[in-house]
Write a structure and sequence with these properties.
alpha/beta, Rossmann fold, five-stranded parallel sheet, 18 strands, globular
């Protein structure tokens, strides 16, 4: 995927001048070696931070090495002032960790007191209003801290992705989709650029792409991807023209940003003018790490992109759509995997999920739009969805959303797609999340989240939670286990 950042980690150790500097140097080398043993590439900066001049020297070396994510390592107690000055001046995500003592045989000259130093560092982090990544237990052996750095990697990728992101929006949200229309001011606070355009602009770039030399190659690639699921070969060149138009627009309008995604109008007028539904094209771009959110859902596109950055896998945007009927639950057998009926829901959208995330994907027509726009007729302008069962396995549902008064809220919950036939249309699957019923009531409804959720195709709750906290979001909803009530939950 070339639409997400490549993280280049840098490692800088710090040392308080009344402690042996060699202790930090030796521990930094051991940590770098532990990272390499895990397959983590990390630039080991030789400068040890004892004072402010060292901090500036290390900053120059980090820049020269092209480092964009920094690990500050307290090899001993460490000087909190110079340490946090480097964190403040470094232009990228920063992680703090500290060295545990290695052996009871060397607790005089070999004692580093980094456990204590992290406390002082945290006070200075607060003074400078920094938001670094601090692991849940940030003190450990070289091997343990290397594991913490592995956890930092997806968090850093999300941070860097948002910093370089531009969201292209086309058209206003459809009628009665007020939930998809939220203030964009918080996006600018995050460093995300937004370029809003009209449906006419979208139609204009589509018309101007007609006859483009790339169209035939894209249509051929579509046919190859669809295989036996290519129900409408006559439609592919139109769809390819639309895909070419979007990619051309993205490349021409990135400007100062590095990464681009879309939130586009897709109904009801779209079909009358373009002659198809755009879902399959949206799915293809999502498969390349360029989410195209339905119904001009800007925060949905943002959430989907964060899922791509966190996992380095394609993601999708789904409706938290419908319950699973009792007769399907009863006959599910072992496929139910011990979940309760209220732990289940069906995740659905018309056809925007990448083919790599579906079972038996095929080009179909949008049944709901067909009822509305072509009743009693053979499908024509409502063709163009990619439909199939969502593949089984671990997933994470996630959303970052602005409230009406421009406050960011988020939620995250891990679950899995079960091997149960959803017996319906669209890109759809039976999703299980522990205590989903309570989560639905006391997070999704209580906090007024919209019906769209981003789905990452991997367990990524830890990375999402940490990334959102680093963004300064204080209200993060999670699916609480049974026995741990929500503040709004009725105790009776």
């Amino acid at each position: 995927m070339n639409n997400i950042p490549a993280v280049k980690l840098g490692l800088v150790a710090v040392s308080r001048d009344c402690f042996p500097i060699e202790l930090s140097r030796r521990r930094r080398r051991a940590l770098a070696e532990a990272c390499r043993a895990r397959g983590l590439k990390i630039a080991e900066i030789p400068t040890i931070i004892e004072n402010e001049a060292h901090a500036l020297e290390a900053l120059d070396k980090l820049r020269a090495a092209g480092v964009n994510a920094l690990v500050l390592y307290l090899g001993n107690f460490g000087p909190e002032g110079p340490t946090t000055i480097l964190a403040q001046r470094f232009d990228g995500p920063v992680m703090f960790a500290a060295a545990a003592e290695e052996t009871g045989k060397d607790l005089v000259d070999g004692r580093g007191d980094a456990y204590c130093g992290m406390l002082n560092a945290s006070y200075n982090i607060g003074l400078r209003k920094l938001r670094p990544y601090i692991p849940e237990y940030p003190v450990g052996t070289a091997e343990e801290v290397a594991g913490m750095i592995a956890d930092f990697l997806p968090v850093a990728r999300v941070q860097l992705g948002l910093k370089g992101l531009k969201i292209f929006a086309f058209g206003p949200r459809p009628q009665d989709f007020l939930a998809c229309n939220a203030p964009i001011k918080p996006l600018y606070d995050l460093g995300v650029e937004v370029m809003e355009n009209s449906e006419l602009d979208l139609y204009d770039i589509f018309l101007k792409a007609k006859g483009a030399r790339e169209i035939k190659a894209v249509a051929k690639d579509m046919a190859k991807e669809l295989g036996a699921g290519n129900a409408y070969p006559d439609l592919l060149e139109k769809l390819a023209q639309y895909e070419v138009a979007l990619i051309r627009f993205l490349k021409a309008n990135l400007g100062a940003s590095r990464y681009g995604i879309f939130a586009d109008k897709c109904w009801p007028a779209f079909e009358s003018f373009f002659g198809f539904v755009p879902c399959y094209v949206n799915s293809r771009l999502a498969g390349r790490g360029i989410p195209v959110a339905c119904e001009v859902d800007i925060y949905g596109a943002l959430s989907e992109y964060m899922a791509v950055c966190a996992t380095e896998l394609p993601a999708t945007l789904l409706d938290i759509n419908n319950t699973v009927p009792a007769d399907m639950v009863k006959t599910a057998g072992k496929a139910l995997r011990g979940y309760k009926p209220t732990d289940l829901f069906m995740g659905f959208h018309c056809g925007n999920t990448p083919s790599s995330c579906l079972i038996d994907a095929g080009l179909k027509y949008q049944l709901i739009m067909h009822r509305l726009q072509e009743p009693g007729k053979a499908p024509d302008v409502t063709r163009g969805t990619l439909e199939g069962r969502i593949k089984t396995g671990g997933v994470t549902i996630f959303r970052l959303q602005s409230t009406a008064d421009a406050i960011l809220r988020s939620y995250v919950a891990e679950g899995e797609v079960l091997d149960i036939d959803p017996k319906s249309f669209g890109g759809i699957g039976v999703v299980a999340v522990k205590e989903m019923g309570r989560f639905y009531r006391h997070v999704l409804i209580e906090k007024r989240f919209p019906h769209h959720t981003a789905m990452a195709f991997a367990p990524a709750g830890k990375a999402f939670f940490s990334a959102v906290r680093m963004l300064g979001v204080e209200d993060i909803g999670v699916n609480r286990p049974a026995g741990l009530p929500y503040p709004t939950e009725n105790p009776f």
